[in-house]
Amino acid sequence: MRDLEKRIGDSIDDSLKAVESLREQTETLIAITELAVSVINDGKTIYFIGNGGSAADAQHAAAELVGRLGMGLERKPLPAVALTTDTSVITALANDYGFDDIFSRQLSAVGKSGDLLVAISTSGKSTNIIKAAEIARGKQMYTVALTGACESPLSKFACYTIKVDGPNTPRIQEGHRTALHIICELIEISLVE
After folding, report:
1. Per-residue pLDDT averaged across 142-168, rounded?
2. Under a CB-based contact definition with an 8 Å cutoff, are residues 46 and 79 in contact?
């Protein structure tokens, strides 16, 4: 039982450390918010991508913007789309082109100059995420990356990168969720006030 108690305590400590690493990136969080608000005010769209748990985070963030965050503010729905949700498109693309193209092919179809891509990858090395960021750059879209603490190929394509300092994927994802909630909250406040 002691081992389980220690494991729980260590996990909580690691999660707190991961979230705390965002405090050092306050300026970046503000810059991302300002970019997102500008994109929305220009009538453009924010696209979210990620794999596995990061795919769920992409869907969650898009839902917060289309719906509302739940901070007691009422506002219009915002143009946000998770490219992780259409199983027919994803499986057709994976089957016909390969898994590495599931996001880049979708972005090639719908992305426009001035749109924003939010690319979530705990490693920052996911080939399908990097290929989408390459497409975004070619279309003159903005890209924001959420990664782990290490330098990554994905960051090279991003205007801004949030680097969560966590020892493993679950803790990094917890930091990403907090960062996305903060960004969505700041967008909501900026557009309502």
Report:
1. 97
2. yes
Provide the residue type at 80 as one letter. A
The type of residue at 140 is Q
Q: How far apart are CA 153 and CA 130, in angstroms?
A: 7
pLDDT at position 182 is: 97
| Whether residue 103 has pLDDT greater than 90 | yes
Instruction: Kindly state the tokens that stand for 193.
Output: 């006030």
Contacts of 110 (CB under 8 A, 6+ apart): 45, 47, 81
* Nearest-angstrom CA–CA distance, 117 and 120: 10
Per the structure block, which two tokens stand in for 42?
A: 């220009």
The answer to whether 173 and 19 have CB atoms below 8 angstroms apart is no
Cα angle at 64 between 60 and 68, to 5 degrees? 155
Quick check: 193 pLDDT over 70? Answer: no
Residue 2 scores a pLDDT above 80: no
Domains of the chain: 2-192 (3.40.50.10490)
Phi (first) and psi of residue 151, to 5 degrees: -60, 145
The answer to whether the pTM exceeds 0.90 is yes
Backbone torsions φ then ψ of 36, nearest 5 degrees: -60, -45
Chain centroid, CA 164 distance in Å? 12
